[in-house]
Each structure stands twice: as structure tokens, then as C-alpha cells.
Amino acid sequence: MSDPSPPPDAADIMTVVHEAVGGLELEPAEKREIWRFTRRELPYLWSQRTSYFILGSYRDPYIRQLRAVQNELTRQLGAYPFIMGDLIELPTDRLNTFDIMFSLLATYSDYIVGVFEKESGGEAPELGEIDDPPYFEKSYVYPRDYSWVTDAHLESKHHVIQAALEIAFTDDLTEDEAASKIKSLLERAQDTGINIAEDEVWEVLSNRTDTGEDPAAYSWVHLNKFRKFELHDRCFPWTTEEELRAAVAELPSPTPRPEWEERDES
User: Fold this and answer.
1) Can you tell me the distance from the alpha carbon of 24 to that of 17, in angstroms, rounded to the nearest whole number?
2) In what order do the strands lie in the sheet with 111-116?
């Protein structure tokens, strides 16, 4: 097999790679593997299709939510949603290959979509990568069970369900006490005009208690980063997979040129 030749944008690609490895000098074999990766994976990102780089945990059951987002986007004509774990890897033992692959994919993707359900795992440093330039403007986050610490008021179904989850999973309450508090919560929500049925809330609570899924907990750092996206209207909390799938509609639709890219060239 002949060695892969450098792609057309070799200089720009190597700028990204050198930054990812901290300016380390690459060996010839390492460069060849990088060219092989870029020639295999980057053409999809250079095409007329709109690319969505989906981040999150690859572990079960969390990977199911990534697939749900990917499937919803796949239904849209002209969309190319992908997960890095499905791509070929850089077979180099010496280099920090994750950083190289992530940097290349994030740089050349049109949009980045992060799905979060916990504060640990590889998705935590990914969140730290996308909340600042050069990736922030093209990134969107979907944190499960998230609400900002000052959101004590009820504004939507999400706030109501989130508050009900916190009550249901409070260890200090008996089952009857929790049920009473949740009933009062629903009455307050309905009095403020939120259209939410009691059965709807109890179905979510039942599913979460049956599976033993406690409400997602995040560190103060996570909450602040989610808040930054929220202030820019690019944070979409969710509780159930159905809500997550519906929230995918909030992402920019496939277009020939994303708005952030057009602004960069103006």
C-alpha cells in the first residue's frame, strides 16, 4: 500500500495538529497516519452536507442518548451527524491521539453537539474544550436534569419535572410526604399557567425510580459552563429521551453554509 500524500489543506491541518500536540515535532510515520485519517474522515466534513459532531459518553446506557440524537439528525436531508467513536483511530502509541482527532473534527465540523448526563467521564474535558473559542460559537449542549441554581421559580414543564425529581429522590422524605409535596408542586405549576398533567409527571418519576436513575448531579464548574451556553440560547435541558429527541429540533437545520462560518469570512 502506498503512503498517503498530504491533503489539499495540509498546512492548515498541521497547524491544528501541532497545537493539539503542544508543538511537538512529528515523526514521518506519525504524519503518514495523520494524512490517512484526514483523507478518510475529513472529506465528509468538507462536503456540502452539514456536519454535527456529537459528544458524550460512549458507555452504556449513555451511548443510547447519543444514538438518539444521531438518529434524529440523520432524518434531516443534508445532515451528517457523527460520533468520534465510530471513526478510525490514529494508530500511534506515542502521541495524544484523542486530542489530535478531537481538534481536527471539531475544527472542521459545522456544529458540535454535547449530550451530558453526569459530571465524570471523557465528556467532562470535552465540555471544557467547547465552551471557549474557537469552538464555542458552533457548539450546543444538552444536559440532562440541568437547571441553573437560581431557577427556584417555575417557568416550564422542565422546571416542574426537575423539581419533582428532586423531591422524589430526597432521602429524608417518606413516600407519602414526597407525594404530598409533588402534588402541591403540580398545583402551583398549574396555577401559574403551565400546561402539565399529573400523570405526565408521575410517569417520568416512575420510570426513573424503576430504573434507579437518580437525578443527574453536576459540579459547580459544569453548572457554570452550562449556564454560559444557556445565556447564549444554546443550552437545552432534558429529562426523558423523548424530550431529548424533540430538543434536537432546536439545532440549526442543514444549510450550505453555517452562520458562524459566514461571519468569520465577512
Assistant:
1) 9
2) 79-83, 50-55, 111-116, 139-143
CA 139 to chain centre: 8
Sorted by sequence, the CB contacts under 8 Å of residue 18 that are 6+ apart come out as 24
Q: What is the pLDDT along the chain (266 residues), one digit of tens a residue?
A: 556 777 778 899 999 999 999 999 999 999 999 999 999 999 989 988 999 999 999 998 899 999 999 999 999 999 999 999 999 998 888 999 999 999 999 999 999 999 999 877 778 889 999 999 999 999 999 999 887 755 555 667 777 877 777 777 777 778 777 788 778 878 877 777 888 888 888 887 787 777 777 778 888 899 899 999 999 999 999 988 999 999 999 999 887 566 666 666 55
Residue type, 111: Y
Q: Distance between CA 87 and CA 104 in Å, rounded?
A: 13
What the block records as the C-alpha cell of 39 is 483523507
pTM of the model: 0.81
Cα torsion at 238, 242, 248, 250 (round to 10°)?
A: -60
Place of cell 432534558: 238
C-alpha span between 265 and 178 (Å, rounded): 55
